[in-house]
Amino acid sequence: MFFSVETNGGGYDFDCSGGPQKDPALDVAATCGALCPNDPDERYLSTVSPPCGMPGEWGNCQMAAVCVKNVIVAARKMKCH
Fold it and tell me: Which residues contact 56 (CB under 8 A, 6 or more apart)?
């Protein structure tokens, strides 16, 4: 399981693996720039996904006259374990 809040001791190493691991389903990012990834797949709308527990814009990019952000969740937190 992945969590968006720290353990009681602090940090995100819930499985005691030696460090936090981002949820692979959320660890995707893309910018909606000139090379528009015009597809329905959702991702963080930035150059990189946010650190554990931090929010970021989540959505997809859509081509209209120009590539635009379609924000679905304004502050989706990165889950880790």
Answer: 29, 44, 45, 46, 49, 50, 75, 76, 78
- Domain of residue 71 covers 1-81
pTM, rounded to two decimals: 0.86
CA dist 14 and 58 (Å) reads: 24
- How many domains is the chain partitioned into structurally? 1
Measured distance CA(44)–CA(18) in Å, rounded: 26
Distances (CA, A) of 55 to 4, 10, 47, 52, 63: 9, 18, 14, 9, 25
Looking at residue 56, its pLDDT comes to 97
